[in-house]
Amino acid sequence: MNIPSLIFWAFFVLPLIAFLIWIMRQDKRKGATGLVVLAILVVGGIVYMYWKTKGL
């Protein structure tokens, strides 16, 4: 990973994920479902980013 990519992750992606986790934990009924969906989206995004940058 290069420096701009690390800056993007540090300042935008990680705070967004933390905020979404906090919001979903506020919902008592469907909080766990939201966290599972968020985890799937994050893993899917990381896999897609790796796939596009490595050209596999």
How would you characterize the overall build of this protein?
- The radius of gyration is 14 Å and the shape is flat.
- Helix content is about 85%, strand content about 0%.
- It has about 55 residues and is mainly alpha-helical.
Q: How big is the Rg?
A: 14 Å
Mean pLDDT: 79
How is the biggest beta sheet arranged? none
As residue ranges, the low-confidence spans are: none
Coarse shape:
flat
Quickly give the structural class: mainly alpha
State the helix count.
2
- How do the SSEs run, as a string of H and E? HH
The proportion of residues in beta strands is under 5%
Beta-strand segment tally: 0
Percent in helix: over 70%
Distance between the termini: 17 Å
Which keywords apply here?
56 residues, mainly alpha, 86% helix, single chain
Please give a quick description of this structure:
This protein has helices at residues 3-26, 31-54.
What topology does this entry show?
Blueprint lengths: L2 H24 L4 H24 L2
Helix pairs in contact: 1-2
